Amino acid sequence: MFEMVLPRGRFSPAVVLSIGLTLLRVPLSAQDAELRVGVGLHAIGLATRVAPALAGETMTATYLTQPMVFGHVAGGHGRFMATLNLEGLTLKDGELAPGNAGEGWVDKRHPHTWLHEMVVTATTRLAGVDVSVTGGRGFAPFGTDDPMVRPFVRYPANHHWSQILERWLLIGAVRRGRLTVEAGIFNGAEPGGPDDLGNFDRFADSWSVRATVRPRAWLELQGGYAFVESPEHAGGFGLDQRKWNTAARIQRTICERRRIYALVEWGETHEYVDDLKLFIFTTVLAESAFGLDDWTFALRYERTTRPEEERLLDPFRVVRPHTDENIIGATRWNTVTASAGHTFAVRGIGFAPFVEAGRSTVGEIAGGLFDPAALYGGTTLWSVSLGVRLRAGARHERMGRYGVAMPAAADAAAHNH
Amino acid sequence: MLNRSLRVLALIPLVAAACDRDPLANDDGFEPREPITIPVIGHGMITGRWSAEVAARGDWAYTTTWSRRVAPGNAIMVWNVAADTPILADSVIVDGAATLGDVQISDDGSLLVVATEYTGGSIVIFDRTTPDRLVQLSRFTSEATMRGVHTVKLGHVNGRHYAFLSIDPSPAQLVIVDITDPENPTEVLVRVMGQPYVHDVFVRDGLLFTALWDAGMDVLDIGGATAGGSVQNPVRLGNVVTVNGNVHNLWWYHDAAGGKRYVFLGEEGPGSVTGGSSSGDVHVVDVSDMAAPREVAFYHVPGAGAHNFHVDEEAGILYAAFYNGGVRAIDVTGDLSQCSADARAADGRCNLELAGREAGFALTDGNPAVSIWGVARVGRYLYASDMLSGIYKLDVQPLRQ
Question: Which of A194, B21, B155, B235 lies 20 to 30 Å from B6 when distance is taken between CA atoms?
Answer without folding.
Answer: B21
